[in-house]
Amino acid sequence: MEKKMITLIAICFILTGCFSNQTKNEPVNVNDKVKLVTENENNLTLDKVITALKTEGIEMFKEELNNDWVLNNVNGNRFSVSRSTVKELYKEYISIYIFNSETARKEGLNDFNHQKEKYDMQLPNIYEYKNVLILYWHNETVDNAKNAKLNKQIEVAIHRI
User: For residues 62 and 78, what is the distance between their CA atoms, to the nearest angstrom?
Assistant: First the structure.
């Protein structure tokens, strides 16, 4: 009986030793955590961006499209900026991308520039601020892009965020 008890205790010690490092608890640098929290606090959310755009009088209607651009592994949120009751041949859209950081947003824009090279297409007006990238798909010509219907309102909204 005593041998069985010693064997059982020995097996418990062996198993405990084998599985003791499974949690992978490693020392964490407190400064790294502070940096991550600060970056996330400065990041904008989709709700903040939408609120700012609506404050400037832009009516937005969520579009459920599966073919919007994926930039740096981030899916955009596409909104029609035309009344949903109006049957327009060419709607205007705003695509909003919320990245984890400003660096990721810059990589997203580089990704867009790389992807668009494959297509002969009208380019959207591009707005960047912090971790947000906005693509305004308007109906103006390339030469008249700065005069697109919502250009000024989007610029003002971004500056007020």
Answer: 6
